[in-house]
Recover the amino acids of this structure.
């Protein structure tokens, strides 16, 4: 199993476009593949495929429930909570758990010496598994609205990968914060998708610094090449970062994508280019594809 994360420093650069088209290309070349949509705040990769629902699980964590009959209002749980999720007013004998802020770490339960804290499940989101053509798997992480962090849902989605061989494509959340780290940490290689604009370059720099800090191998695909300037290419040259592919800025590509169509399906040359990108990555990392 070789995991490739498709990531970008910001939304809207074409990360899901690349992830879904790579997945389609692998399938159409009879290569074992799984697609995991880890962009749990706004997952949409599954919408590009005519899928069959296989299973769905709810992801929860445990939040404290405080028994005010046993509570002495000592304040120890409040002190132990790093997330300010316990609100208390001892003079008025008020103590409340702010469930939306709670990270389910359990520290308050450990801290309480008066057996005043029990726990209950709190829903964070769902992980749904689908199949395509009865043989390929797609997994979607989707967090509930109002939940502070999608990290637990992303972890649960990656755990749902059942196969041991082939290629897993992880559609990463945008940005460089915890959800991005949680996803790319699980991968063997990261494809960063960017666009040749000042914003694209600025976000690319941040992604590159983050990946270097966690010691991940990566390369870059420039989407909408020809749109802006050549600063991104110059940056890649200066930093000796592999440029994996340039996808030209074309109205036809945007039109196909906006209507939920896969460009690699209608343009076999594009599919071949993506296949070559994946095969080069595998070769450089001592792997080969798993043709059926
Ligand atoms: S640690 Fe226990 S007893 Fe103390 S305030 Fe918290 S719930 Fe109440
Ligand atoms: S479980 Fe952790 S985050 Fe939640 S209220 Fe207790 S100490 Fe705070």
């Amino acid at each position: 199993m070789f995991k490739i994360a498709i990531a970008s420093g910001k939304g809207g650069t074409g990360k899901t476009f690349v992830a879904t088209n790579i997945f389609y290309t692998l399938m159409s070349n009879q290569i074992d593949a799984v697609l995991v949509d880890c962009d749990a705040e706004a997952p949409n990769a599954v919408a590009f495929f005519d899928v069959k629902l296989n299973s769905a699980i709810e992801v929860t964590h445990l939040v404290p429930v405080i028994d005010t009959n046993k509570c002495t209002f000592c304040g120890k749980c409040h002190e132990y909570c790093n997330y300010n999720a316990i609100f208390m007013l001892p003079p008025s004998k008020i103590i409340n758990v702010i469930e939306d802020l709670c990270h389910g770490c359990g520290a308050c339960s450990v801290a309480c010496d008066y057996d005043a804290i029990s726990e209950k499940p709190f829903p964070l989101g769902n992980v749904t598994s689908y199949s395509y053509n009865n043989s390929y798997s797609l997994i979607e992480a989707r967090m509930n609205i109002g939940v502070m962090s999608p990290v637990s849902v992303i972890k649960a989605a990656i755990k749902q990968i059942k196969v041991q061989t082939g290629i897993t494509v992880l559609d990463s959340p945008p940005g460089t914060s915890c959800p991005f780290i949680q996803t790319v940490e699980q991968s063997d290689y990261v494809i960063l998708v960017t666009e040749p604009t000042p914003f694209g370059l600025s976000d690319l720099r941040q992604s590159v610094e983050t990946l270097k800090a966690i010691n991940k191998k990566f390369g870059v695909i420039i989407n909408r090449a020809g749109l802006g300037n050549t600063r991104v290419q110059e940056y890649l040259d200066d930093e000796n970062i592999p440029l994996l592919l340039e996808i030209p800025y074309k109205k036809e590509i945007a039109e196909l994508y906006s209507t939920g169509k896969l460009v690699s399906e209608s343009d076999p040359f594009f599919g071949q280019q993506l296949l070559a990108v994946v095969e080069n990555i595998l070769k450089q990392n001592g792997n080969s594809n798993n043709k059926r």
